[in-house]
Amino acid sequence: MIFQKLCRDKRYSYCSGIILVDILIAFSLAVIFISVLTAMTVNSQEILEYSFARSELLNGYENGSSTPIFEMEEIRPCSASFSNRNIAGSYRSLLFNDSLRLPNMLNASITPIMLPIDPLLPLTDLVVRNDIVYISTDSSTASDPDLLIADISDTASPIIKFELNTGPGISAIAIAGSRIFGAALSTVAQLHVIRLENLTEGVIESKYRLPLPYATATPPLATSIHYADGKIYLGSTKWDGEEFSIIDVNVPSMPAKIGGFETGTQVNNILINGNRAYIATAGEKQLIILDVSNAPSPAEIVAFSPSGWQRQEGKILSEYKNDLMFGRTSGGYNVAVDHEAFSWASTSTSTLQGAFSADVGGGVYGIVSDRDFVFMATRSVNKELQIADRLFNPSISSSFSLPIAPQSMTCDGNKIYILSHTSPVIYEIAFRPED
Known about the structure:
Layout: H1 2-8, H2 12-63, E1 108-114, E2 123-129, E3 132-137, E4 147-151, E5 159-164, E6 170-176, E7 179-184, E8 191-198, E9 201-208, E10 222-228, E11 231-236, E12 244-248, E13 256-261, E14 267-273, E15 276-281, E16 287-291, E17 299-304, E18 314-320, E19 323-328, E20 341-344, E21 356-358, E22 364-369, E23 374-378, E24 385-388, E25 397-400, E26 406-412, E27 415-420, E28 425-431
């Protein structure tokens, strides 16, 4: 009423001042509202990304568990970002953006886990799930185990829970549900299916021999393996048959080959992503991509033959959200222009054009990737663990020394594990949050 009277008395300057104050207050409230709305939108996007990463992580643990539901797909239960606990593996929410971090800023914690086994036992491959390690071996001693299961929850005192002698050695393993599938170094049966009752009991459920192309053909040894969607994708040494085989294991006690592809050379590693099979080989076509949508007749999509293939071998594959990473050996001596590490963005994997690459002197024997970096297990002396961005930019790289020659590399949650080629030790690598 007072304001109305002042305006009726034509005290316009006072009235105008009141209106101006109202306008300023309204404008300020609008700015605050827009700022809050913008912040909520950004935070919502971050939380959505966090939730997606958590979902991937939890789904991986569920599918890699010991639950005897065989139809499960094995999904790698690894973090979306090993060096950023805000993304996955932690319940801390994403309310603030972290500043850009480079590999040389990572705070690595490297823990050796000494396995209580014969130090001369040659270890070939490992899988880690919830502090339980599954290890394959290849010993020349008939009585030695070919499969080990160890509890490494206490890294200072790991416990061997289970040992199994399958006869021949095992070069690589894959896990799905309660089964362990072994690529056997045997001409009698290249695939071994092991059923676990629990972590301390297991039996060989079945063995499978690849069919011969003709009666007098010399059978191969199995060298690599991958499980996906009820099928085993098995790689072998070079022989007169198909070095890449697709085996139906929906009935684990009765494996049956349903398709294959002849690479003409040894298959060292296999990665399956949807209807595509990525194959690392020892031949001229060191990386082959196959369309396996029609399992009985896999078809080559594209192949990659980098310089140096006469000496070097395609060794290891990894992917993150359809981006592809490929590593190979050095061939005994290093030629700087013959690179050992390669990566392609998801848009380039159909043509394998536009690769980013790097010279890694000792060769790459393991690759794990997340949304930020590529982690490589190499045999470069004093640089056995190397970290780079996807472009392999020399200024965005870092390395750590491990007193071993790496044999295999895997991940579990926020941790990376490297298996030694020369001693019974596993290195556990974690990245502590920055102070």
